[in-house]
Amino acid sequence: MNDILLDVRDLTLDRGEKRILDRVSLTLAKGETLALVGESGAGKSTIAIALMGLLGRSATTSGTARFDDQPDLLSLSERGWAALRGRKLAMVFQDAGAALNPSFTVGRQLASVLRRQLGLSKFEARSRAVALMESVGINDAEGRMTAYPHQLSGGMQQRVMVAIALACNPDLLFADEPTSALDVTIQAQIIRLILEQTRARGASCIFVLHDLALASQSCDRIVVLYAGQVMEAGPTEVVLRDPRHPYTRLLQSCVIEIGTEDLTPPEGSVPPYDQMPAGCRFSTRCPRADARCAAERPPLQPVAGRDLACWHPEDAA
Amino acid sequence: MLAHIGQKVAQTFAVLLIVSFASFALLKLAPGDPVVLMLGSEFSQETYDDMRAQLGLDQPFLAQYVQWLGDFVTGHWGTSYVGRADIYTYVVHEALPVTLTLTAASIFLALLIGVPLGVISAVRKDGVLDTVVAAGALTLTAFPSFFLGILLIWFLAVRFGLFPVMGFVPPWQDFAAGMWHLALPALTLSTFFIGMIVRVTRAAMIEVMEQPYIASARARGEPQWRVVWVHGMRNIMMPLVTTVGLQLGGILQGAVLTETVFSLPGLGQMLTNAVLGREYVLVQAGVMLTALMFIFVNLLVDLSYPFLDPRLRTR
């Protein structure tokens, strides 16, 4: 259980002058579920996209990302990526309606993954595809095979997306806000589906979420990000029951105060990426910040059962 | 679906009616008296009136139009004043096949060259190749095709003798010779169109490549060539087909010049001669036929949409 599947060290990503990710480090054990949380624009999705090798050419990265027996994902060639994607790494996208090709039937999109990645025959791929569709809870899977994405509901589209992502039993699944395009009633179903399916396969899962409540319910560990820096990371229970970083506290308090699940703190906003302080990026909004915070980046250090990057951590609750 | 097709066909007929009326009216308003033209310099008033009645030119305007339209639909297009030949036979059996062959070959050539260039250019956006292709496409679009035709004749036909200077051999009689004769005119006519196709393909492909389903296709391990040529290509069919349909007008226009430059006995050359000889009937037939082709192709384009994009296949 404690075998490390993914070990990201100092992942830094620049787009021109803008440093989108600033020395992000995180580890993930086999079979573990991890939540990346933060406001929109914190770089959560970017981490997933970078680790899937889907960054455009406008981005430059440094740091390392060891995955399974791959020494470094970030230095893979396009050919190296092609061997991993779909087979070992897979991704469920935010808006399944846009992430499924509108011109092909869902059955064809699912079967083509099976045929190409597992070398199944047309007939085998088809029957496996139907079985997969059934396993993700699609009624009349046989009939839905010939449906085009636009003919399915949002929930059904996301189920198809999950089926495609898990078709080849990947070791690691990225779920990039898999429910943000869905009705609230269906959100929980999809999250549960992803958890069930990854657990059944012994796969690890990285959820990108902006919903603390969802994260606390579904993930073993949590990484709190602010403007491309890791603020606090650790077991979900430890971090959320007793947050020590002022930013984690702020996130939690705004959930409680406003009573919504949207993580946008009431006062202040994230500074533009080309005007970030050299130190802790949260220092411009932090109630506990001083001159040192803005100038010097606090290292991510173990504190009370979690990793924390703060010069002035909060006391135990 | 059937209702949709019916509606489109009905619209097409309405357009055809308007076009036919306009082409009829326009030529009626043109200066010059065809009767005088036919009779020459010396004739009596009586001969003049007889000829006028014989041609139906003494009838009211609308009656003339209805008469003409009825004749047109039934294939009675009259005889050419000058050539004394049956216009229907001449136009449909001799001129039209030449123009159709030339146009089809040009469109085929333009797609064959333009689509791959546009796709490669989109995939290597802002690269060296993209810059070169974009500049080339703009030049081709702006370059007058008849001038290019003359250049091609001069270099490839006259100086190096690689291709025939002029003439038409029906490819259905002798395919190799037909293609050989067609090469330069088709290339000339397609240049303008190649530039257009490159630009439309490039723009559409760049937009498609930014769609989430492309990232999603990559994420499931699709190799680059399949991402571009299967997932991407399938989604740029609509703008591509639309461009071909809309630009057909331009191509037919270009065909007039190209046929003149290369002495191809097609609709273009026929129209030029008919206008110069003030042969109303022949001009009308040519205009109607060109309009028919344009409208028919665009009807096909319209009807193809549900096949190209499943989201339009409702009900």
Lay out the secondary structure.
The complex is a heterodimer of chains A (317) and B (315).
Chain A: E1 4-15, E2 18-29, E3 33-37, H1 44-51, E4 59-67, H2 78-84, E5 89-92, H3 96-99, H4 106-118, H5 122-135, H6 141-144, H7 154-166, E6 172-176, H8 184-201, E7 204-209, H9 212-218, E8 221-226, E9 229-235, H10 236-241, H11 246-258, H12 291-295, E10 301-303, E11 306-308
Helix pairs in contact in A: 4-5, 5-7, 7-8
Chain B: H1 2-29, H2 34-39, H3 45-54, H4 61-73, H5 87-123, H6 128-142, H7 145-159, H8 175-209, H9 212-219, H10 224-232, H11 237-262, H12 267-276, H13 280-308
Keywords:
heterodimer, A: 317 residues, alpha/beta, Rossmann fold, 2 domains, 8-stranded mixed β-sheet, 3-stranded antiparallel β-sheet, 12 helices, 11 strands, B: 315 residues, mainly alpha, MetI-like fold, 13 helices, globular
Account of the protein in words:
The complex is a heterodimer of chains A (317) and B (315). In chain A, strands 5-6-7-3-8-9-11-10 form an eight-stranded mixed β-sheet, sandwiched between helices. A three-stranded antiparallel β-sheet of chain A has the order 2-1-4, covered by helices on one side. Chain A has two domains: 4-88 and 170-308, P-loop containing nucleotide triphosphate hydrolases (Rossmann fold, 3-Layer(aba) Sandwich); 90-169, no CATH class. By secondary structure, chain A is α/β, with parallel strands linked by helices. Chain A contains twelve helices and eleven strands. In chain A, helix 4 packs across helix 5 (122-135) and helix 5 (122-135) packs across helix 7. Chain A is globular. Chain B has 315 residues and is an all-alpha fold. Helices cover 77% and strands 0% of the residues of chain B. The longest helix of chain B has 37 residues, at 87-123. The model of chain B has no long low-confidence stretch (mean pLDDT 86). The chains are: A alpha/beta (317), B mainly alpha (315). At the A-B interface, helix 2, strand 5, helix 4 and helix 7 of A face helix 9 of B.
